[in-house]
Amino acid sequence: MTHHPTAIASHRGGAFLWPENSLTAFLETARLRLEQAECDVHATADGEVVVLHDATLERTTDGIGAVASLTGAQVRRLRVKGCRGEAPPMLGDMLGALAGSAVAPRIEIKSDALGRPYRGLVPRVLDTLDGRGLRDATWIIAFDAQVAAEAAAAGGLAGVAWLLERVTWGGLGIRGTIAVATAYGFPEIGVHESQLDAEACAALRAAGIRISVWGANHEASIRRMLGLGVDVLTTDDPPLAIDLRARG
Predict the structure, then answer these.
(1) Helix (H) or strand (E) holding 50
(2) Is residue 10 within 8 Å of residue 29, measured between CB atoms?
(3) pTM for the predicted model, two decimal places
(4) What's the rounded Cα separation, in Å, for the pair 204 and 3?
(5) Structural contact between residues 8 and 19, judged by C-beta atoms closer than 8 angstroms
């Protein structure tokens, strides 16, 4: 497997620098010399695709309750904390912010407040991508293996990554992780940077599976991940990662 330099993705648009998952964050990311902009999506009550990390509104907006309890129109009346009157972006808005840049979308499809996949969310995400001709540039990522598998089965994407919580990674072990990824045909797995070591990297590479990480937000962890040669480094501080990568 030929190995390319580590790609950098701005986590939630670069959460150390701008309000997470905000239009501002994605507009700023589009100006950076990096490869991907990572975001999270949920479904509204009427099936719109909204960019927000949590299944509930309180932490990052002035709203209350579950995203799924509001319509798209109601979500548009909310305001993102820390922004100057911005509503949470819909997926189309986020994609619009990247238009004209070389930055590709990396979309995490989330589950609802009870941990269940949203019915019909994967096809709606793909329809939104198709409307802008972006399916072949986009990575879809998910913790729910069946959601990731649904995206992979639809085809035409740049790729799909299955994300593993610490407990899943610990419980399956590297052999179990490779077995599941291989059974589903996932080209990439994603883990928290603290869970990854050279041995795990070598085993995944030998199995032909790409490696992405999140949580590499400071110089030491970014350097360690660049040293391991991970395929994608998702970070809250993209300018720092860009600088460290450039310095080699």
Answers:
(1) strand 49-51
(2) yes
(3) 0.97
(4) 13
(5) no
H or E element at residue 180 = helix 166-184
223 Cβ contact partners less than 8 Å away, ≥ 6 residues apart? 244
Mean pLDDT of the 151-160 span: 98
| pLDDT bracket for residue 4 (50, 70, 90) | confident
DSSP state at residue 81:
T
Q: What are 107's two structure tokens?
A: 């979309």
Instruction: State the Cα–Cα distance between residues 89 and 126, nearest whole angstrom.
Output: 17
End-to-end CA distance of the chain: 22
**Tokens 């293996």 correspond to what residue?**
145
**pLDDT (tens digit per residue) in 116-143:** 999 999 999 999 999 999 999 999 999 9
Write down the H helix ranges in the chain.
Answer: 23-29, 72-76, 91-98, 121-131, 145-154, 166-184, 198-206, 219-228, 238-247
Q: Which residue, 211, 110, 95, is CA-closest to 161?
A: 211
Top CATH class of 7-247 equals alpha beta
Per-residue pLDDT reduced to its tens digit, 192-227? 999 999 999 999 999 999 999 999 999 999 999 999
